[in-house]
Write a structure and sequence with these properties.
Elements (H helix, E strand, L loop, with lengths): L1 E4 L5 E4 L4 E2 L4 E6 L2 E6 L1 H7 L2 E5 L6 E2 L4 E7 L3 E5 L4 E6 L2 H4 L3 H4 L8 E5 L10 H8 L1
Antiparallel strand pairs: 1-2, 3-4, 4-5, 5-11, 6-8, 7-10, 8-9, 10-11
């Protein structure tokens, strides 16, 4: 686990073994599919998350295009697809408890699982590169 101080001096965590986008999404490859969430750095920058708009299972998503929206006390932000494919699972827990994004960004607060070509994930940043990107 890498740790990094953000611009406010808060410490954010960056787990190794995941891939990261320049839009601050994390991706875990499991059973040939991509589980997607937002990073600790992103949730820290957003502030208190109050609402998440997620796609339905079966929705087609395209790489680099927004598929979800996060509303916080500070702003609204899009979440972008790291690969193209079909939404195979949606984290319904976020609908009733969006605040878990702030308390557990790499655990129970994943957004969706996408079934598609995971090849582009290899081109994304590893933990060290993402830490450098955030500094």
């Amino acid at each position: 686990m890498l740790e990094l101080s953000d611009v406010t001096g808060d410490t954010v965590q960056i787990p190794e073994g995941l891939r990261y986008t320049d839009n601050h999404e994390w991706i875990a490859v499991e059973d040939g599919m991509a589980r997607v969430g937002i990073t600790d750095y992103a949730q820290d920058a957003l502030g208190d998350v109050v609402f998440v708009d997620l796609p339905e299972e079966g929705t087609e998503v395209s790489i680099g295009e927004p598929f979800a929206e996060i509303e916080s006390t500070k702003s609204v932000a899009d979440v972008y697809a790291p690969i193209s494919g079909t939404v195979a699972a949606v984290n319904g827990l976020l609908v009733d408890s969006p605040e878990i994004i702030n308390s557990d960004p790499y655990g129970d607060s994943w957004f969706v699982v996408i079934d598609g070509d995971i090849g582009p994930i290899d081109e994304l940043m590893d933990a060290a590169a993402y830490a450098d990107f955030c500094e």
